[in-house]
Amino acid sequence: MSERTTATGGAPHFDLAVVGAGAVGSLAAYYAVRRDPGRRVAVITHAGRGAGATRLSAGFDTPTGHNPAQRALAARSTVLFDELAARLGGAGRAPVDVRWLVARENTAALDATMADGGRTRPVTAEQRALLERTFPGLAHGDDEVLLASGPMTAGQPQWLADRLLDEVLGHPGNTLLEGFRVTGVRRTGGRLELAAADGSRITADRAVLAPGPWVLDGPVAAAARERGARVKKVVAFHVMTPPPPGAPALVLEDADAFLLPHHPGGHWILSITSPDWDRGPGEPLAIDGRDRELARDLLARHVPGFLPHLLGGRVFSDCFTPGHLPIVDTAGDDAVVMAIGGSGSGYRLAPAMAEDALNLLDWRTRT
Ligand SMILES: Cc1cc2nc3c(=O)[nH]c(=O)nc-3n(C[C@H](O)[C@H](O)[C@H](O)COP(=O)(O)OP(=O)(O)OC[C@H]3O[C@@H](n4cnc5c(N)ncnc54)[C@H](O)[C@@H]3O)c2cc1C
Fold first, then answer.
1. pLDDT single digits (tens) 334-357
2. Rounded distance from Cα 126 to ligand 1 centre (Å)
3. Where is each FAD dependent oxidoreductase domain found (predicted)?
4. 86: buried, middle or exposed (CB in 10 Å: 19+, 13-18, 0-12)?
5. N or C end of the chain: which has fewer CB within 10 A?
6. Ligand 1 and 213: CB distance under 6 A
7. What is the pLDDT of residues 83-95, one digit of tens each?
């Protein structure tokens, strides 16, 4: 490590500490270094790279939002993803056509969620024929319609986080601290001191805290709870049959679920909304019978031909916030900003969350 040390206790000192090496933390660290390449940054993870929700994320990016603030975050993230792709020579994202199954009466509400102001339109005969070939037994009620929107994207969140961390760590003076579980952040001697569970310490001028689902068990727990943050199980099943080339994603809008082709894995991802609240990453998390019933119900109603292929999947926890709107705000000190509340969409909103966190930090602590 080439960090400076404090005059007093010899604790390594950094200009910025980023707690969290997931999508949000790695983006915050990357933007910090881009803004000021001389800034010394420590990225901290309680375990190692890929310890969090980002590793298991389905990486589906539908730039939508259920309120204006969420739509603004989604729209800004789209711009930032495009910038990343241009700078890095790719951001691990591929376009995917998206079709929506929604109750006819909810069509206008769906259109209102589109962050780019775009509109869905009824599928053409050709698009319907492709859907019927792709989703065996495709069925829906008379009161439901199939709609098409512009293409959206499927990303590789962990690949992106790793790529960004590599960029950050390529700058002299920056470091990744693994196995450093931050238990407290306090101001001492004009600096922030970040203490770890084993008693070791570093100091920093500023800190971004992006702990993902560990939010309620760490240094921002009290501030996060005060703002209504909770944790919830997130489940994405695997449908073990290969998606054909060019297969569209199918969003089951009213069930808050989607079927996404996962070409690298040679299977589909069926994301459902698990009802298991208050399930943090420290607990044993498993796909259980209730999740499977939900998934089977959806497939039985809409894609019965996929039922025999429903096998296993991904399960983890995520931080959910009121209105599913991420919280990016100071936490007890102007030099400490938390960026939390992926709410099951933390990959697609991460660029704007990270940018907002740095804007807030730089603005609050500007001298
Ligand atoms: C199965 C599944 C499917 C998903 N699908 C999608 C999707 O299709 N699209 C989408 O947009 N989103 C999706 N999400 C949500 C998205 O993945 C998450 O919202 C996002 O990855 C959260 O990123 P994060 O950086 O906030 O947290 P994480 O990736 O969980 O990272 C948290 C980091 O903080 C560190 N940390 C925490 N506490 C401490 C501490 N005290 N000290 C040191 N380090 C600490 C951890 O080590 C880790 O590095 C999905 C999530 C899951 C689980």
1. 999 999 999 999 999 999 999 999
2. 38
3. 15-355
4. exposed
5. C
6. yes
7. 999 999 999 999 9
